[in-house]
Structure formats: structure tokens, C-alpha cells
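Why do we care about 3D structure at all? Because function follows from shape, and shape follows, mostly, from sequence. That is the central idea of this module. The next example makes it concrete: a single protein chain, its amino acid sequence, and then its structure expressed as C-alpha cells.
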Amino acid sequence: MLVTATIDGVPGTLWLTVAPRTVAVVTVTGPTSTPKEGDTVQLTATARDEFGNVIPDATATWSSSDPNVAVVSTAGLVQTLATGTVAVTATVNGVSGTPVADDFGVAGRQYHRGSAHPLLDDLFGQLSQTICASCRMSG
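And the structure:
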């Protein structure tokens, strides 16, 4: 781009090259609680330049360190599959970022009687009856 300025009738010109902003850091944000096995979690990647300014329309490429624990879509939607620890990474123009926790754990689901899961409720009911029957027979 050519920039021209005139002072007292004397022009001065300058060729100015405007370069695209370079990604300096990628921050990834998501939930603050530990997701459970089977949950879906939305992560968001934000690319910033060396001055901390957001680079609009920067597209992230997502990856999971362990697809057996969690998979991530091209939009940053994480589906947890199993209990464990996984690093989900967003990369923009070769610069990578992970959630603040770096790796996040996936907790197993805990069930108890009254869990709204009929098969487990039935199992717990049978187990309780068996234990009570054993107590009566040995007592």
C-alpha cells in the first residue's frame, strides 16, 4: 500500500506492507468440572496475536491424545467414552493450546439404588435381598 503525505506542498511517500497477524497463543476454554463417562463437552479455542488481540475467524484443528477415552469433533465438541485422562488440543497455524487443566480426567459414573437406571436398581435390589437372607440364615 502506498501512503502519501504532503506538508507545505512537498509530498512524501511510503510503501507500507500490511502482513496478516501471526498467531502467538491459542487458549482453550471449557467446563470447570470433570466430565463423566458418556458426557458431551464443548471446548472453545481462541487465537491471539503477540499483542493479545483476538484473531477473528481463526480456525482450529482439534485432536485427542487418547481416542479410547475421548474423541473431539472438528468444532471442538468432546465426547467422553471411558474413564481416564486425555489431552484435547486445538492447533491454529501451527500453534497449539490445551485447556487450562492441560489434561482433563474423565470420571466414571457412579450408580446407587434409586439411580433411575432400572437394571442397576434391580441388581442392587437382588444383592440386598441376598445379603439380608444370608444374615438371617447365619444369625
